[in-house]
Structure formats: C-alpha cells, structure tokens
Protein 1
Amino acid sequence: MRSNTKWFTDAKFGMIIHWGLYSILAGSWKGKEAPRTCEWIMRNMRISLDEYRPLAQQFCPTQFDAREYVRKAKKWGMKYIVVTTKHHDGFCLFDTKVSDYNVMNTPYGKDIIKEFADACAEEGMVFCVYYSQMQDWEDPNGDGNDWDFDKKDKDFRKYFYGKCIPQVKELLTNYGKIGLIWFDTPYDMPVELCRELRDVVKELQPECLINGRIGYNLGDFRNMADNCIPHDPYAGAWESPMTLNTSWGYCEYDNHWAEPSEVITRLSGIASKGGNLLLNIGPDADGVIPEPSVKIMDEVGKWMEKNGESLYGTSTFPTFPYDASWGNMTYNAEEKKLYLHVLRYPVITPKISSIGLKTRIKKAYLLATGEPVKFSQTYEQAREEERLAVTLPAECPDPVDTVVVLELEGDIQVQKLNEGCYAENN
Ligand code: FHN
C-alpha cells in the first residue's frame, strides 16, 4: 500500500541540494575539466580513493548557514527540501557510526544533516533526505567503483546489510520526522533488497514517502527522468528533478544558467500535468549558494509570491480537446478554480480563447492583482462547441506568465473530441 501523498502532491515545488566533497573540486581535477555533471567527477575522471578521500580534510564550509537555505527556499515558494546525505562518492554529510568517511571527521566537524533538519523544523519546512543506496564509490562492496576495487571481489549484500540499511536506519531515527527519502540509481539491484529497504523505511517512519528510484514500482511517487517533463498529464503523484545549469554538483565554469522565465514556465508546465518541480541547488565549498542561482530564484520567488496559488494544491483535470496556443492551465479541484497561464500574450487583440469548457464560470480575474477580466461563454450549436473567450488587459501585466483565475460554478467538465459523430464514423 502506498502512503498518503497529499502533502507532496499539494506542494508542487521543492529544492534538492547536491553537496559533498565534489563541491571542493568545482568541476576540475589536476587542471582538467570534468566531462559531464560534476558530482560524478570521481568516477568520470577515475580519481583513486587515495587521492579523493583526503578532500575530506579540506571540507570546511565556513559560510554555511542552514537557516539561510531554508529561508531562501521559503521565499522562493518551495515546500520541501531534499539534501544529499550520501551521494555516489560515499561521503556522508551526517554523523554516522557505520563509516568514518563523514562530515564529523572534517575540519568542519558538525553534522550538516542535523543542521538542516533543525532549521527545517524551526522554519516549518518539510525536511527530506537523499541517499544513494546502490552506488558507493568508497565502499569496496558498493556499486560503481571499478578502478580501486575489482568487480569480481565485490559482495553487494555485504555493503547493503553492513552500510546501506544501518545508515538508512540512522537517518530515519536521528533527525526527527523525514518527509520523504530520495533513493537514486537503483540499476539492477535485486527486487528483494529493494523491498527490504522499503520495509525498513516504513517500519521506522510509516508516513515517510519513498521516491520511485527505489525501483520496481515500490515508491510512493514517480520520478520522471532528470530534466524531463512528461508529454501528457500523469495522474499519479510525481516529480521532475531539474537543474538550474547543467550540473547537480557545484561547477565553477558552468554558465549555462536557465532564465527565471524558463523556471516559471517549467513550474506551470509541470503542475498543469499534475507534478512537482524539484529544483537543484549546488552549493560551493564554502557552503554558499552560487550567485547566479540566487539571482534566478529571487525572480522566480517574486512570481511565486503573487502567483503561487495557481500551483499549490492543483491536480490533473480532464484534458481539453485542443492545446492552448497561449499557454497552459492548472486546476484546483477543492476550490473549483481553473488557472489560465498566459505564456504567449496575444499581440494584436488582447483576447484568448479555448474550446471545450462545459462548466459555467462565476468570476474571472488576474491572480496577481485581483483585477476583473471580461469573459464570454457561448455554445455553438451546429459545431457542438463550448467556446470561451477571455479579454485581457491591453498592456501585458506579466510577460512571463500572466495568470487568470476562473472561478467555476461546479466541478470542471470538458468536452471530448470523440463525443462527436465523426468519431463514430471512423
Ligand atoms: O547520478 C545521479 C546524479 O548525480 C544526480 O544525483 C541525479 C538527480 O536526479 N540523479 C542521478 C542521475 O539520474
């Protein structure tokens, strides 16, 4: 049985933080830039443990303040935070008794996960943990490191029972309530081990959600592929993990930053299909959120402050017969509100239209200002079409996404193309 995902499906926007020893390297090793995403630098550049492990002695993020992260996430409209407790490189940001390769044995010497957990509890933010359950490049029996350890000598179960399970137990015991646990890259892990992992989580914290990357459909919600938005609405609980540039871990030379408008468009696009956007932040070695990320997110936050209502608590709704040329829609079933996200503001006449909405509209206004907008709903008899026209202000109020609220008289009902006689003739 899946756990109750209501808080998660209502949340719509979360933050994932990729932070670890790779952040010190910032994407380069011995003067060479890492191919691909920087948290993979150890594996992609085949850095030996003898050389990578000592990075722990440089880990001292003097400017790190967990509260600052949580406050920023709140200001940006995010409802949950997922932190990498152990990424594939095996280094743990928490105080673990199972391995000495952890933050307590660094010059920093404080449990970062505890700092995040406490800050989230104080600020009323849902705290969640990322844990790489299969790949562990530091453990001789973990998956992934075939340059320090011979594959044929590996005993995965030894790692699984000796490290993975005990550490997951620590995470679910020592840090208060965990909103969700985010596993990753299960590859070909045997199904019975994935089931055991699920049971351990649910035994310790029955309400803690598990993401789909536990494998074998054992999670409580689905993760779409990285940086991907599904083509069609997807009715179950789901999330798209996405980056702001091209790396999850901090990379000092990666300047391919998204525009704030892109993030806003992704947010409404994902919500219109029923999902959450889980957006990445990759702090640097000092514990600072890169300046470009802050700049982008401050803009997104301004939009969220005025328009967040159009996302939170929304869910999938019956598909309209035609794509909207001007943008997309989100729907809050409890409040019977349909939100029109105008991403491409009409240039000649400030009117947008849509075919198929059967439910009558009580009231229409701009979400950001409350300014009423004119609308008409007509039924064209011969073509059997429900037509809606909404007149927008002559001047575009928000070039990125102007949100119009339509308060409906009842539950949303939409015409289907196949209700017509032509469908029967085919
Ligand atoms: O290999 C990881 C990657 O480093 C990052 O953590 C992403 C986040 O979704 N997950 C894996 C690749 O899908």
Note: Residues 37, 39-40, 184-185, 226, 241, 248 surround FHN (CB under 6 Å).
Protein 2
Amino acid sequence: MAAKQRSVYRCAECGAEHPKWAGRCDGCGAWNTLVEEIAQQPRKRGGGTGQPSAQPPVRLTDVSPDRTPRISTGLAELDYVLGGGLVPGSLVLIGGEPGVGKSTLLLQAAARLQAAGVTTLYAAGEESVDQVRLRADRIAEDAGGVLVLPEVRVDAIIAQAAQTGARVVVVDSIQTTYTDELDGAPGNVGQVRECAARLMRYAKASGAAALLVGHVTRGGIIAGPKTLEHMVDTVVYFEGDPHSGFRILRAVKNRFGSVDEVGIFEMTSAGLSPVANPSAAFLAGRNADSAGTAVTALIEGTRPVLIEIQALAAKAGFGTPQRVATGLEHKRLAVLLAVLERRGGFPFHDLDVFVNVTGGVRLIEPASDLAVVAALVSSVTDRPLPADAVFLGEVGLGGEIRPVAGTDRRLAEAERQGFRRAYVAARSKVAGRVELIPIAHVTDLGARLAA
Ligand code: TYD
Ligand code: MG
C-alpha cells in the first residue's frame, strides 16, 4: 500500500491552495469551493529550459490517419454517438439519472465487446456480482464472458485492468470509486476527480478505453462528476423518463467525433433495444381525435423525430392554479401561457394547466412552441386539432410565430410518417408535398385551427 500522501485543499473557483479544509476560500472569499487533492511534489523536469524535448515534432501530413482504429462496442447506436466506436486510450463519461439504464447499457456493450474478443473488465462498485449476474440474465446478450470485478478502490481496479489486459474498462460508478490517499468520502469532488485522473493516466498509458458511469441529479448536473466534464474526452448523457420506455443517448462533448448524433433506445424486458423508427414509436398509442394533442417535429442530433404534446386545461380549485409540465421547462410553459393570455386573448389565469411530452422526450428547441400553444388552445376550446397536421414554429413574446431552422427536414419526416398538413410560421419558405398552413400570430390560432 502506498504511503499516505499529503493532501491540500484547492479552491475550485480561484485555484488558491489551503493546507486545511475551510468553509470559505481565503483567496477569493467563495463559500464551499475547497476540494481535496493530493499535494504535488515539485517534479524534477528532464532537461532545463532551452533544451529540445526528447520527441521531435512531426508534420501533420506524416501522421497516418488510421492511427486510432476504433473499438466497436457492438451497439450501433452507442458507436454512432461516440463518433464511430471507442477510441483506444480515451476516457468516456456516461451520465444519467439513477434508473435510466446506464448499467444495463454498459453491460450490454461489455457483453458484445467480450463476444467480439475484446477483453472487457466491468468494475461494479454499486452492485454485488450476484446483482450484475441477475441483470446479465435479463438482457438479450450473452454476458457470460465479461470479467466482473466487485471493487471500489481505484488502484485495485487499475491493477486488475493491467493484469487482465482489458482493452475496455467499465467503472460503474465513478461516485463509488475512491482512493484511500484522500480523506474525503467516495463521491465527493476531490475523490471523483482524483479517481478519474488516475483512470485517465492508465487509459492513456495502456491504450485501454475507460467508460465511467456518473450519476446525475434531477436538476441535470452530474453531481461531483460535473467537474470531470473538461477532463474526459467524451461526455455522453443517457436521458429519458425512467417510467417511460424510451431513452436518448446524447454526446455533449466529444474530442473524437461530432456532438450532433443521438442514439434512441427502448428499455424492454430484455434490456435496451435500438429504436429503428423513433417517430412511429413516439406516436404509437396517440389518440388524435381528442382535444389537446398536437404533433411537432424535433431535431434530435441530426435526425428529425416526431413527438406528441398533450395539454389539459381544467378549472382550478382554490388558490394559485397549478402548472405542471413534463418534458418541457416550467418557465417556457409560463411564457407561452402568458403570451396566449395577453396576446391571444385565451384566458388561462384561472385554469390548472398540465402539459406532457410523450415518450419521456424533453423539449429543448423553441421550434415546438407552436405545437405547445396549439395543444393548449385545443384543450381550452375543446376542439381536436387536425389529426394529419404537424406544428412548427417559435412563439415570440409579441405573440408572433417565427420560422424554425431545418423546417424542410422536419416536414420531410412528417410526410414520411403520413402527415399531410403543417402549420408553420407565415414566413417559412419551403417546398414539399405537405400542405402548408401559415400562422402569423397566436391570434390566428382560433380561426385557423377551426378551418
Ligand atoms: P439500470 O441499468 O440499473 O440503471 P442505472 O444504472 O442507470 O441506475 O436500469 C434500471 C432500470 O431498468 C430498472 O428500473 C429495471 C430496468 N430494466 C428493464 O426494464 N429491463 C432490463 O432488461 C433491465 C436489465 C433493466
Ligand atoms: Mg447502475
């Protein structure tokens, strides 16, 4: 066992070093920013100033383009999001809320990697070997060959990775991993950073790819591991409502690929399975004849995907009316309701309003505004919207409807899924076989929707 090293506490804001932990940084006065780390001994550098480094520089044209052959995880959607597979020597952080399916995804990947002859070590810090085994029995893959290591000490994980010659190391999760050279409990920022740094050094030195699981809190930040985002090569988020079947895998940072691609999965009784036609899956079970539902086309990564938005406005009881939004930011809903009320003359102030995006999808683009307001108006007027229509438009504070980027791609997907009409901003310029119904302002909604 390595001798215990001296710790220092560094301010995450200003970088000031403190010998002891304190609630407030002496350097910048910020509270609760001190993070434990191992004190660095001043290193003797090979060669003083002025001496050339041991490695001569190379011309970029002399660097062969296939220096980094990728390791396919066997899960096409995961490979796609990673930019074509795992890069040897890289560190990938997979973040997601508890229960979303991170362990399932990585066990499936581990099974396929192992089946393809890539030695894979799965360090399980959150579950016993028996629990991993139970999960392995559920998934469609044969995970029998995967090496499972019930271990939380980072150095022991690294030692086993070296000993087994694993090409891929899964650490589930980085929050349970620790080193006893730091005093902090597993999961605190200092531990998480130090463990990730050691795994990173191991990955770079050995050429193994490391996949770290990081839990994200409801607010959307990777607790603790948020500070890892700039250390690791790739950050992938696994999103989706744990109660609905669909999951979206999204790269938010990728040193080896674009961050535009998403992978869409469905959680089944036999693990995660890729969704070939996400629009059809998200619209399955839609009751187009009822009031308060509208369809819009989002762009997930580079793919247009149709989703359904449901709204229900009901007479409020006593007190402040409720506003409940699932899959849509509360603030956005508040803005849209205010615009409908003030600019459109639709009274919502004494109604409870519930908005739900089906499939567990989260609306981030303003392009879906028009669908949200159309669903709200449909609910409040109790008139169903045309079943074969999609809604594309951003709603401005003046009540004006603005065109959205990528309208033609969204319309092409709508057409593919059998939609015949599109309500779009008056200024949208697109050609296609879908009938366009221009909407200039929210006041047009009532009249246009009745048409
Ligand atoms: P899990 O991978 O344990 O999530 P995480 O590691 O992100 O916390 O997945 C948890 C959920 O997935 C759990 O509620 C059970 C469900 N599940 C299935 O529905 N089917 C399956 O085949 C498996 C393995 C899990
Ligand atoms: Mg897990």
Note: DSSP finds ten helices and 21 strands in the chain.
